[in-house]
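Researcher: I'd like a structural prediction for the single chain below. Treat it as a standalone chain; there are no partners to consider.
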Amino acid sequence: MLKLLADAVFSFDVEWIPDPKSGEILHQTEPVNEPGEKAKVSFEALWSAARKDGDPDDFKPYLKTILCRIVSLAGILREKVPGGADLKLISLPIDPSDPAKSEEKALLVTFLKSVGRKKPQLVGYNSAQADVPIIVQRAIVNGLPGFGFSDRPDKPWLGVDYFDARNSEYNVDLADALGQYRDRPSLHQAATLSGIPGKIDVSGDSVADMWAEGKLDEIVAYNEFDAFTTHLLWARVAHFSGLLTSEQYEMEQQLVRTLLSDEIAAGREHLTKFIEEWDRLLAITGQVKKD
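Model: Treating it as a single chain, here is the predicted structure.
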């Protein structure tokens, strides 16, 4: 299981869509960079090329991540402070209504610079196979430098290394920790059975259509849900691994609840659904809610 609890931990999630530019380059679709019907045509060209014989015409196959565009990055930054820890919600784009701040390149620059400077322990779900690779691939497609994110020690155990999930403790994939192959649960399964909210209202399969319909704000909200889910699941795994005592684990949950309340008070009213679902699942699983 987990071996290290770093001073800074970033439990994160990434949302992406088929990249219309990939459709233009590889399948000669009409140039498009904004939501709408033309974007849907580009999406379909990419999906159609990836379908196998026998797949339904409306099947949306998983695309190689390099063919996709990142539209949202969200995470919970946990930093060690005297007597405990401090949590902060990081959500990109900061303003989904601003096209400039929502560009993939802008999201990647902000993420890479922040992670490259702070060097947190990255925690995700299927992140070693998907989230970290798409960040790297799309940074390269956009012609970006690594901004410190790409730094590597001579050996993974000698420092922060985001490129070797097997040997480095700074690229933590909770999916790998919980199972392999057919025994690997989905994030929704692992979370909800543990009394933690999983998918609420939206699933990853809906993100492309939501983007094409101009609902980036809803994608960001969904991504924030997944960030909180990932962090709560990380805390549970860290507790099992002996990195958090039972008292510290209870305190971590209270810190998350306080962060949720603060963010709701600041205007993120959609997070009310997360608290309601959390309380519902705690009741179903027979766990006691801490006031």
